[in-house]
Amino acid sequence: MSDAGLRSATADAGDAGFADFFALLKPRVMTLVVFTAFVGLYAAPVSVHPLVGFAAILFIAVGGGASGALNMWWDSDIDRVMRRTRARPIPTGRITEAEAFGFGMALAGFAVILLWLATNALAAALLAFTIFFYVVIYSMWLKRSTPQNIVIGGAAGAFPPMIGWAAATGSIGIEAVLMFALIFMWTPPHFWALALFMKSDYDDAGVPMLTVTHGRRVTRTHILVYTVLLAGLALGAGFTALGGPIYLTVAVVLNALFLRGAWAIWRRDETAAEADGYRVEKRFFRDSLFYLFAHFGAIALDTAAAPFWGGVW
Amino acid sequence: MALSRQHELHKRRFSRNLGLGLVLGALVALFFGLTIVKVTNEGAARPTAEEAN
Question: Is the domain of A97 the same as that of A156?
Fold first, then answer.
């Protein structure tokens, strides 16, 4: 019996530890939210008091965590089926569905109101919309009804830098839209690569991922097409107000590598992938995380370096 | 099965209570800091009584 199994056998409702509630917030996703929100706030042309900036990023992260908890509440039935999500707090019985719902709703309200008080109404409204979009539009509606689920649902993960920007400026600039677009276009190839090597997980759970509805060959083609579009966007952004020498250098190198990875995925068939345990797909997935962090890191570095060479471009 | 004093259930409850206590303490400090920043900034932006006259 697994450790999770032992724990669930002894756990009663309401006896979850602090770590169990923290796990409901999807901490790994939260690192992406925190980092991109920070870059959005930092790259904005309005300086913010460090404590207000810290509070803004904290409340954006809590809002992101709240949507993660509500997603786990709604998806607890399929989380029990999928290998990847079986150890989450609700499937193992450490937290009840009602607890997760209450926790998520309370945190969502808390985060939106406090972001409003700490910064402005636009940032708070964007955060509220993000939580609504992720929980209602993506989790409740799209995820189980269309293979375009992660294409449209990816918007939820793309909002944090825009919220960070709005928290600093009180408006939405073209740079904020470009940062949104970067994450939006990055999400599909990232998740489709995951779907390729998670094999039957989504199939077992009845989630209509592209791999399930249209097959793996089509998914490989989609990864390549979206990666080409992403590369065009990422490189194009380098020549706008968002870009700078560091960003452009990072974008040229990483997009070349990313395109090579997508090409390698497209050229392979299932026999080759199974033979080496989906090595190329797994590497593409791992590299895609670095890809996004590096692009946003470069935006932050260009902002930091701008005073030394008199402007971003 | 009788619950001994060191049962894992006690540890989990303690971790939850301790975590919540620390989070609440941190929030008090954050709200206090935010209040100081807001009041100071608004104070700086607002004209003094002499300037207003």
Answer: yes
